[in-house]
Amino acid sequence: MSDIASLLTPSECAMLVIDHQAGLAFAVESIDRQTLLNNSAALARTAVVFGLPIIASTSATKVYSGPLMPAIQKVIPDVHAIDRKSMNVWEDEAARAVVESFGRKRLLVSGLLTEACVSFTVISALAEGYEVYVVADACGGLTPTSHDLALRRMESAGARMTSWIQVLLELQRDWTRHETYDGARSIVETYGGGYGIGLSYARDMIKPPSK
């Protein structure tokens, strides 16, 4: 396992996207739903730009939850979600096998609902020796209180809390890394609020001195 004190690097990480489905999003009250969708799409695009393996899993697609939300599926069109019966990804043999097949011991996790499918999976993965980073602003809970308590439960079990923008900036770290510069900057400009507005302004308005 990598040193837990070290920064995230793309070659060590895999992304696990759990149950980003409309039927579950209807119940989310811990965060504005559009903000949740934007954050989750930004995180998925980040995984694509940095070449992280992406595992998507859904549950109860036919009877309640629906498919992976289109805004997220559009960002990862080649990723086919693995549908499960168990709330816990780790208790579904097919989904767990895909996670294990990539051999990455650092998992970045987002999903719905924080109190169930996310926390159960995270706690189980931690017990198996994985280093888990919960992208908390790309997770949604039934209430602010229950969401916060679930985050605290996962943190006490050894998970590390982060945000989608920290993940992006941590993976990029140096804006002279040209291979991911355009992709990372585009994500920030699209989803990064005031920070993204500032980057767009700098690109469009601040010109280099003429020679």
TrEMBL record:
Pfam families: Isochorismatase. The keyword Methyltransferase does not apply. Keywords: Hydrolase. InterPro entries: Hydrolase_YcaC-like (IPR053152), Isochorismatase-like_dom (IPR000868), Isochorismatase-like_sf (IPR036380). CDD domains: YcaC_related (cd01012). GO terms for molecular function: hydrolase activity. This is Hydrolase. It comes from Microvirga vignae.
